[in-house]
Structures are given as C-alpha cells and as structure tokens.
Design goal:
There is one protein chain. The chain is built from 10 helices and 6 strands, in the order E-H-E-H-E-H-E-H-E-H-E-H-H-H-H-H. By secondary structure, the chain is α/β, with parallel strands linked by helices. It has a 6-stranded parallel β-sheet with strand order 2-1-3-4-5-6, sandwiched between helices. Helix 3 (about 65-75) runs parallel beside helix 4, helix 7 crosses helix 10 (about 200-210) and helix 8 (about 170-175) crosses helix 9 (about 180-195).
Length: about 220
C-alpha cells in the first residue's frame, strides 16, 4: 500500500516539483495539495493522509498554526515540515506542536524521500543542520513541552491575528472564515485586550516578532 501524502506550500512550482519527485516513487503518492494554511487543515481532516508535508510561511494560516490545529483534531497526524527557515524560534515551536520532522528546502531529493518514509514509520527526522542547532542550544532551550507561544489566544484568535497582519479587512476575514463581521470584531477586540495592543500597527509588529507572518 502506498504512503498517501498531502502537500502544503503556497508556491505552485515547488508543489509541482515535489509531486513529480514523489510520483516517480512506487511506494508514494500525492493525494492532495493546499496553497494556504486553512486549506491544509480542511484537507487533512477530509483526506486523512499518512504524511503531511508542510511549509511554514503560508498565507491565511501559517504552517505552525496549521500544524497545531491538525494535531489538535488528530493527535496521531504525522507532519513533516519542509521550510527554508533555519531558525531557533521556528524549530522550537514546531517541535513543541508535535511535528515529526523538520527538513530544509535545500535538502537533496533522497533526503526528502527518506524523511517522508521515516516519518510514516513514526520516526522523528531532522536535517543535519537542524540537529546540530538543537544539540548546541539544548540546555538553553530547556523543556520544549513547556514552551507556549500562544499568549493565551484561541486558535480562532491566532487565525484572525494573522489575517489582520496580512492586511485583510474585517469583511474579508469574515468571508474567508465564514463567520459574521461582528464575530470578527469581537475576536479582534479580545485578542488586542489579551495582548495589550491598541492598533493594527502594533498587531502587525507582534505578528512579525512571533513569526506568525513572514517578511
């Protein structure tokens, strides 16, 4: 039986390249593609793939939040992060969400294919550069499981924070999330109160600092 893979990346060319690579492998198949975080959460729920290959910097909902939501809905989901970010903060947060692997986009094809197979078997896989970084900083990091970057925000509030930071209006956010404008406004007020922020500019700065959006 083939390993069923869901691809999540906002770059069409990259998805097409990975799909082509995977289709040459007799034991692997791509069952779905997503170009934003909201879509991958929905597809993960409907398709139930064996492995989700996830980018971090995606619109509407970033890969970290998408991973968190998928794992919340399905604690056994096997998620492999494929990203260009060799960054302590990203790695710390990703591993804390329960992702099974963290591979850099400059990895060789055989490394990526091997990582997919290893994650499917339940193994944790990290790029060599990431492993070195973790070993170097392990004592400084402390217990990853105690790290919490959410600042008390709900999943919906984090979604809305990202959308606000990406420049969407309340009406556009309401349409994207299929909720009322009043609900968006309520969430916006709540998250600003929790974070002690007072305008959109401060929200954007916070989102950048917390790696909720990429610049």
């Amino acid at each position: 039986m083939k390993i069923r893979i869901l691809l999540a990346d906002d770059h069409t060319i990259l998805r097409e390249g990975i799909r082509s690579l995977i289709e040459d492998e007799p034991d692997l198949e791509v069952v779905g593609e997503a170009e934003d975080g909201i879509s991958v959460v929905k597809l993960a729920d409907s398709l139930k793939p064996d492995v989700i290959l996830m980018d971090l910097a995606m619109p509407l909902l970033n890969g970290l939040e998408a991973t968190r939501q998928i794992r919340k809905n399905n604690p056994n989901a096997k998620i492999l992060i494929l990203t260009m970010h060799e960054n302590e903060e990203y790695i710390r947060q990703v591993l804390a969400t329960g992702a099974m692997g963290y591979i850099l986009k400059d990895a060789a094809a055989r490394e990526l294919l091997g990582a997919i197979r290893s994650v499917h078997k339940g193994e944790v896989v990290l790029s060599p550069a990431i492993t070195r970084l973790i070993v170097t900083d392990y004592l400084r990091w402390g217990d990853l499981s105690t790290q919490d970057s959410s600042d008390g925000l709900t999943d919906r509030e984090r979604q809305i924070l990202q959308l606000i930071a990406e420049g969407y209006t309340n009406k556009q956010i309401a349409d994207i999330l299929s909720i009322s404008i009043k609900t968006v406004q309520a969430h916006r007020l709540n998250l600003m109160k929790k974070l002690d922020l007072h305008d959109r500019g401060e929200l954007i700065k916070y989102a950048i600092q917390k790696k909720i959006i990429d610049i």
